[in-house]
């Protein structure tokens, strides 16, 4: 890797972003260091992680990794995905509602993901040893009794596989403990924006059953208060002149969420060498309303007519077997995930804008041929099943030559039903067998992959270690079923395109049945140099991939795997008698033939291997124990993510992107969407004794810069960028041996973040009415907890 060329690609503003925080860090830390009483030099907590499939000190892992431990999760009052994602500088995401976040790392984002027949995620999500990534969003797991959250930035494909192209996020739960009984609970009440109220109830118990077995039970119930108002509006459809009024649907604070769940884990030590840990976790999340506001009406306001809700229920059963054979560690990790999502969504914007611009209202009439209200709403059901198995063998890591080898197999199924409904629609325009349904998607998707993987490390001497890894994989994707209109409504799509009377999910016929498969390999190479016991540097070459798949428009070719190549130099250092940790990495990533999802003809999502992109970045994090009572924690990331070739929106017969066209849809040098050039956080915590209680004051600040909303030039200009934001959380509390009480203010200055920006249909049609998903307004709460 040529770092001089890499550095030259930074623009002036990016160099300023890098220089300024370094100077600020030195300015902030130096006087504090000089003022410390030599008798009060605390050491920072040692954090153990399992990022490389082994238990290691965080400071010994040659990966850019952020880890939020048990105490950090508690101190920051982290309860869900949104809470921990904002504290991870390498992570960006878009979201339309809880449970449907599209997660990205290191700027590896093209936007438009999340469609049921679209690309697999580029960031892997794990619960303990088991993958929980699904096509349409990461599971929004309630965070309680969790040991840590690990965010591994950069390609992790050799050890974690297909959906770890740009990084991996792992949620590690607390395991049953055979040595002692323990239990705890917490009760929390909160008020949002001086209006609606929410609560959290949660508890755990750890029960030793014998000196070789224990069970751990965790449960929670959470209500998130609403803050978006569904306000009254009227609309007149141009073609028919029909006026609609949403008076019956208006409601204040109507975007509520209720989450209940439980986790049960059993640990059995069969003998000194073998342990079996079966576990089951289940959660149900019910939401009402929508979590986006209408930019044409105002912040926290929307005007919808149809009922909107989701019921997201899932259960994961997992089994981990750990044993020792001679000097080797053997681990089996298997799981089965079943997820069912029922949803209802207002789709009136689509109907209004297509009627206003193209006169689509003429197609909507009843059996008497009279015009009807063309407003649409969607009823959907998504059924996910995910089964995975991994078997790996590890040699002793203290040996001069050590290795990890493994086998992996996974199968994901997604049964899709989506009805686009117009009430009182003429029978002749209904999809046969589906009343008032103008459009039906009823499909079954299957994604399979299997792999053999391994990494070998060799200690060249006491300071220098070389590691090489590879993953050889096979993947296949199939999509079959029905999508489209009735034959009378369209002579080319839907029923008119059917080639078989076979039915999938009760659809009238079959008009899509395609498969694709691939096999390839990815590699990783690392050199780690241990300067001394407290300081280490490393250089890494690594690759990640995302499997290809089927476009549901049968005339389009399949899209193929895209690959990410990473060149990275990093450091892990501890200073000042273990009072200061300072870690970082600088990298360059090349994203080849990346998969890009967009709305094509008839509003159908199309995926093409779009083009080439390059991401250059710098990530740093620091933790400083200034005194026994005062700590500072900071993390920051800088990214320059841009196209490195023209995007024309077309491919050749082999599926390769065409980059020579008269009117490009995106230019060489255009910024990739979703990820800001800078994201960072700073947490300051002061502890003291007051009235016999251990007390604390804490402030946490998160900043994320401006982001592009779309890769395509025209769409991005219509929607506009997502604005930068700064969010401040404050807390104060007391505790003793028996209980703890904490008062907190989340989003203390009521800053409204734009988490995603989109329109209900193609941006060139509906983009004048942008919908913006936002964060929760200022929230004040109090939390009481006890542990025994």
Key attributes of the depicted protein:
mainly beta, five-stranded mixed β-sheet, globular
What portion of residues belong to β-strands?
over 45%
Largest sheet: 22 strands, antiparallel, barrel
Q: Class by helix and strand content?
A: mainly beta
Q: What is the tally of helical segments?
A: 8
The tally of beta strands, per DSSP, is: 40
Shape: globular
Backbone CA Rg: 27 Å
Helix content: under 10%
Distance between the termini: 54 Å
Poorly predicted segments? 1-39
Overall average pLDDT: 90
Characterise the protein shown here.
The chain is mostly beta strands and 788 residues long. Helix content is 8%, strand content 50%. The strands form eight sheets. It has a 22-stranded antiparallel barrel. A hairpin with a 4-residue loop joins strand 36 (725-735) and strand 37. The longest helix has 23 residues, at 12-34. The radius of gyration is 27 Å and the shape is globular.
Compact description:
This protein is mainly beta and 788 residues long. Helices cover 8% and strands 50% of the residues.
Question: SSE layout and pairings?
Answer:
Blueprint: H1 3-8, H2 12-34, E1 48-49, E2 56-57, E3 65-69, H3 70-75, H4 81-85, E4 91-95, E5 101-105, E6 123-127, E7 130-131, E8 146-153, H5 157-160, E9 167-173, E10 182-192, E11 196-210, E12 213-224, E13 229-230, E14 234-236, E15 243-245, E16 257-269, E17 275-288, E18 292-294, E19 301-302, E20 309-325, E21 328-346, H6 348-358, E22 377-394, E23 401-421, E24 437-459, E25 464-484, E26 512-532, E27 535-546, E28 562-575, E29 580-592, E30 595-599, E31 605-609, E32 613-625, E33 630-643, E34 678-690, E35 693-704, H7 713-719, E36 725-735, E37 740-746, E38 754-758, H8 763-766, E39 771-774, E40 779-787
Parallel strand pairs: 6-9, 13-19
Antiparallel strand pairs: 1-2, 3-8, 4-5, 6-7, 8-9, 10-11, 10-40, 11-12, 12-16, 14-15, 16-17, 17-20, 18-39, 20-21, 21-22, 22-23, 23-24, 24-25, 25-26, 26-27, 27-28, 28-29, 29-32, 30-31, 32-33, 33-34, 34-35, 35-36, 36-37, 37-40, 38-39
């Amino acid at each position: 890797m040529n770092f001089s060329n890499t550095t030259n690609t930074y623009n002036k503003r990016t160099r300023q972003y890098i220089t300024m925080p370094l100077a600020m860090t030195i300015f902030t830390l130096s006087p504090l260091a000089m003022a410390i009483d030599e008798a009060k030099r605390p050491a920072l907590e040692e954090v153990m992680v399992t990022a490389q499939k082994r238990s290691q000190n965080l400071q010994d892992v040659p990966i850019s990794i952020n880890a939020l431990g048990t105490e950090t999760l508690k101190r920051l009052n982290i309860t869900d995905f949104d809470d921990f994602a904002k504290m991870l500088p390498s992570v960006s995401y878009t979201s339309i509602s809880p449970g449907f976040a599209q997660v990205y790392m290191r700027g590896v984002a093209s936007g438009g993901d999340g469609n049921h027949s679209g690309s697999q995620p580029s960031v892997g999500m794990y619960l303990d040893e088991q993958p929980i990534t699904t096509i349409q969003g990461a599971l929004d797991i309630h965070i309680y009794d969790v040991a840590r959250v690990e965010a591994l930035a950069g390609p992790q494909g050799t050890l974690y596989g297909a959906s770890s192209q740009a990084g991996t996020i792992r949620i590690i739960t607390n395991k049953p403990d055979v040595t002692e009984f323990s239990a705890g609970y917490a009760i929390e009440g909160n008020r949002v924006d001086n209006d609606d109220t929410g609560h959290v109830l949660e508890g755990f118990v750890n029960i030793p059953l014998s000196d070789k077995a224990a069970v751990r039970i965790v449960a929670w119930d959470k209500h998130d208060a609403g803050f978006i108002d569904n306000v009254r509006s009227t609309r007149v459809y141009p073609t028919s002149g029909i006026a609609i009024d949403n008076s019956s649907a208006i409601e204040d604070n109507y975007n509520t969420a209720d989450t209940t769940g439980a986790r049960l884990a059993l640990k059995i030590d069969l003998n000194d060498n073998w342990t079996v840990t079966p576990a089951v976790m289940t959660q149900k999340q019910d939401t009402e309303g929508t979590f986006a506001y209408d930019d044409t009406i105002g912040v926290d306001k929307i005007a919808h007519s149809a009922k909107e809700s989701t019921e997201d229920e899932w259960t994961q059963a997992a089994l981990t077997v750990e044993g020792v054979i001679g000097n080797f560690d053997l681990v089996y990790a298997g799981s089965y995930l079943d997820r069912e999502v029922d949803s209802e969504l207002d789709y009136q914007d689509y109907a209004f804008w297509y009627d206003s611009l193209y006169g689509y209202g003429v197609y909507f009439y009843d059996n008497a041929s009279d015009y009807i209200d063309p407003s649409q709403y969607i009823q959907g059901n998504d059924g996910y099943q995910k089964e995975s198995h991994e078997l790996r063998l590890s040699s002793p890591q203290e040996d001069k030559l050590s290795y990890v080898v493994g086998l992996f197999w996974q199968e994901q199924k997604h049964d899709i039903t989506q009805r686009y409904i117009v009430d009182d629609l003429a029978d002749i325009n209904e999809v046969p067998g589906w009343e008032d349904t103008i459009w039906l998607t009823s499909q079954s998707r299957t994604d399979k992959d299997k792999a053999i993987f391994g990494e070998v490390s060799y200690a060249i001497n006491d300071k220098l270690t070389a590691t090489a890894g590879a993953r050889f994989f096979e993947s296949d994707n199939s999509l079959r079923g029905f999508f489209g209109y009735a034959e009378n409504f369209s002579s080319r799509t839907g029923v008119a395109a059917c080639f078989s009377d076979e039915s999938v999910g009760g659809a009238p016929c079959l008009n899509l049945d395609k498969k694709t498969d691939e096999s390839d390999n990815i590699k990783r190479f690392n050199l780690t140099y241990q300067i001394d016991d407290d300081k280490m540097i490393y250089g890494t070459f690594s690759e990640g991939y995302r499997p290809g798949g089927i476009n549901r428009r049968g005339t389009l070719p399949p899209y193929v795997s895209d690959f990410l190549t990473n060149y990275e130099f990093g450091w892990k250092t501890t200073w000042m008698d273990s009072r200061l940790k300072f870690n970082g990495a600088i990298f360059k990533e090349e994203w080849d033939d990346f998969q890009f999802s967009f709305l094509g003809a008839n509003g159908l999502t199309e995926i093409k291997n779009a083009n080439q992109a390059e991401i250059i970045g710098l990530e740093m994090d620091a933790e400083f124990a200034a005194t026994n009572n005062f700590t500072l924690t900071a993390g920051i990331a800088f990214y320059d993510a841009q196209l490195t070739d023209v995007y024309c929106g077309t491919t050749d017969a082999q599926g390769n992107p065409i980059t020579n066209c008269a009117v490009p849809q995106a230019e060489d040098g255009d910024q990739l969407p979703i990820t800001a050039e800078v994201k960072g956080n700073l947490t300051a915590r002061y502890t003291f004794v007051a009235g016999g209680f251990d007390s604390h004051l804490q402030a946490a600040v998160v900043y994320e810069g401006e982001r592009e909303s779309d890769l395509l030039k025209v769409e991005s200009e219509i929607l506009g960028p997502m604005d930068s934001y700064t969010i401040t959380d404050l807390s104060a509390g007391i505790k003793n041996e028996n209980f703890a009480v904490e008062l907190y203010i989340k989003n203390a200055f009521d800053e409204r973040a734009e988490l995603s920006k989109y329109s209900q249909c193609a941006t060139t049609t509906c983009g004048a009415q942008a919908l913006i998903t936002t964060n929760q307004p200022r929230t004040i709460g109090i939390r009481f907890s006890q542990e025994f």
